[in-house]
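Below is a filled-in request sheet from our internal design queue. Each sheet records the structural input a requester submitted and the sequence that came back. We keep these sheets so that new team members can see what a complete request looks like end to end.

REQUESTER: design group, bay 2
PRIORITY: normal
MODE: inverse folding
CHAIN LENGTH: 393
BACKBONE (tokenized):
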């Protein structure tokens, strides 16, 4: 049966994670894996989620299935969080998914069923798993220019130039905030320009919203999605709760579809359930129930937002400290772009072999393309990282 199989290509980040765990050096620094970390390197359970889990433990009296689209209350709460409480609910269809990755795959299958010849245009660069996730649904993929490595900012003119070449009915993948891997986000004026282009060209937006609240704030980070809903007739959003609720291993996210009208939304809702049945049958419930409890309870929701604000504030402080440390090492202002970026990630210029030298000589673990997780730094290791980076260039 399996004699023709060849070994799978190792996943770069997973391989780095394993090597870091096996490294015995006390001064090691991991800036590879994309999880939020505290100053002591821990990835904590959000206090509001912990309280919600306690309530769930006391009140839950069954473990039976919820249905293919999952926790209806969770779907409603997430839709309100993302789209705003005043969005026309009759045009929205949503389904709970196993993480943001599950949402992306579900939406890709929905697009494939609706328009099998559609092409998805993804930013270059983009999250490493976007391409295999979307192409596994059988969709055509192309890329558009997004990042200017020389400035650390969005290459907006080139982005707009490339998107003007997409044909009507094609799909444009956009990062809602905290662009992974670069940290370079569209500003509100750019979102408006992109929205106008999408509407003019008849393009379908697919927004990946994996870091809501970790960029500039919950309302600010939702701007792109909410603006697009006012200018395009249809769109899709893949949402993850992994980072902002810190429920990584429990795997919960949502597919949200903004339909042209209420009738189409009903059809899409049924189709999402059918797709779920063919992929994972029923989604896992625990984290979705905990997130629902947090969002439906005013006190817990407030506590969660306060803790989320603290996470975001820590990342912003680390950005300033890292930029200052790298500028000192280079005797320049060449790393100021790090402060202007948002979210956990930034992309530093790495020379060939530098990632390997950082690991071998300094016990610093980074992805070879230069993406670093800012949250992996702390006041004690930021200067050490900047020095190691400068010495290995």
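RETURNED SEQUENCE:
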């Amino acid at each position: 049966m399996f004699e023709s199989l060849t070994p799978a290509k190792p996943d770069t980040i997973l391989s780095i994670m394993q090597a870091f765990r096996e490294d015995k050096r006390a001064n090691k620094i991991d800036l590879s894996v994309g999880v939020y970390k505290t100053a002591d390197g821990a990835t904590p359970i959000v206090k509001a989620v912990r309280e919600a889990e306690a309530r769930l433990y006391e009140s839950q009296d069954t473990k039976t299935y919820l249905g293919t689209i999952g926790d209806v209350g969770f779907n409603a709460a997430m839709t309100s969080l993302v789209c705003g409480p005043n969005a026309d609910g009759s045009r929205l269809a949503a389904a709970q998914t196993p993480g943001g990755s599950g949402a992306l795959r579900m939406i890709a299958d929905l697009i494939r069923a609706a328009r099998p010849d559609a092409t998805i245009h993804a930013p270059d660069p983009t999250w490493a798993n976007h391409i295999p996730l979307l192409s596994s649904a059988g969709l055509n993929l192309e890329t558009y220019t997004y990042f200017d490595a020389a400035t650390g900012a969005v290459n907006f003119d080139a982005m707009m130039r490339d998107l003007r070449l997409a044909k009507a009915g094609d799909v444009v993948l956009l990062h809602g905030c905290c662009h992974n891997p670069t940290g370079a986000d569209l500003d509100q004026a750019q979102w408006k320009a992109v929205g106008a282009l999408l509407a003019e060209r008849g393009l379908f937006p697919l927004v990946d919203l994996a870091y809501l609240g970790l960029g500039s704030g919950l309302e600010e980070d939702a701007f792109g999605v909410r603006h697009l809903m006012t200018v395009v007739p249809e769109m899709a959003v893949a949402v993850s709760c992994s980072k902002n609720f810190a429920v990584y291993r429990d795997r919960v996210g949502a597919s949200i579809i903004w339909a042209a009208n209420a009738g189409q939304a009903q059809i899409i809702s049924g189709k999402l359930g059918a797709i779920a049945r063919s992929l994972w049958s029923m989604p896992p419930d625990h984290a979705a129930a905990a997130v629902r409890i947090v969002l439906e309870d005013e006190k817990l929701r407030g506590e969660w937002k306060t803790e989320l604000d603290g996470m975001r504030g820590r990342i912003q402080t680390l950005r300033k400290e890292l930029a200052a440390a790298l500028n000192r090492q280079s005797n320049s202002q060449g790393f100021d772009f790090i402060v202007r970026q948002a979210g956990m990630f930034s992309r530093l210029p790495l020379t060939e072999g530098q990632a390997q030298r950082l690991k071998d000589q300094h016990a610093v673990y980074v992805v070879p393309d230069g993406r670093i997780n800012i949250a992996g730094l702390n006041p004690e290791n930021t200067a050490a990282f900047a020095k190691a980076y400068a010495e290995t260039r």
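SHEET NOTES:
- The first strand starts at residue 29 and ends at 30.
- The radius of gyration is 21 Å.
FILED BY: M.R.
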